[in-house]
Amino acid sequence: MQNRAGLTLVEFFVVLAIISTLIALLIPAVQSARRLAQETVCKNNLHQLNLAVGQFAEVHKKLPLPNRPGYIGGWAIEILPFLEQRALAESITGNLLIAQAPPQLQPAPTIFRCPLRPDLKSSGTNLSFPAHYVLIPTSRRDSFLLFDAPNQVNVPWFTSPESSYATMQRSKGPHHDGFYFSRGFQQGISLMIDGKIIQ
Fold first, then answer.
1. How many Å apart are CA 37 and CA 90, to the nearest integer?
2. Which residue has the higher pLDDT, 44 or 101?
3. What does the H/E/C string look like for the chain?
4. 29-55: pLDDT as tens digits
5. Residue 162: exposed, middle, or buried by beta-carbon count in 10 A (0-12, 13-18, 19+)?
6. Where would you tag: which of 1, 11, 76, 143 has the fewest CB atoms within 10 A of its CB?
7. How far apart are CA 145 and CA 189, in angstroms?
């Protein structure tokens, strides 16, 4: 009698069940690692933007002026030279309305994008990426905080949205419904959830 090599139907289903179980255990770990990597990118962006706003303030002895409603400008545009984006900054001439945004402004520079937020187009124009970060200046504009934008913020990134600390405390953000933020002229990133600073 000749021996036949191979798997029986029962052995095949046992192997298939084991592989399925391993995949089911692996998928959440992969998703968790992916989210952690995305949060790290967001925190690094905040750190770099914080440094750029601080450098602008040191050079000009003041924070960038707030943007005029309906126009391109404000802190996000003013700090471009401090983010190795001088050519992009120089391509913006005069007082441009949002509707007149040149094509090179439509995709936000990578540093202005948090990968945890969807790349939805903003409501202000059908081409522009929405703001993922907001500036919170003090009342005398001598210091600032830089936050992830609240989930409901849907304006083009080049309008440089500003907000208040009280508004952020009442809002929901992209990180476990909270926000990462940096304190102007200081190192480090903190996390706020439900209006409370966690770290």
1. 33
2. 44
3. CCCCCCCCHHHHHHHHHHHHHHHHHHHHHHHHHHHHHHHHHHHHHHHHHHHHHHHHHHHHCCCCCCCCCCECCCHHHHCHHHHCCHHHHHCCCCCCEHHHCCHHHCCCCHHHCCCCCCCCCCCCCCCCCECCEEEEECCCCCCEEEEECCCCCCCEHHHCCECCHHHHHHCCECECEEEEEEECCCCCEEEEECCEECC
4. 888 888 888 899 999 999 999 999 999
5. middle
6. 1
7. 10
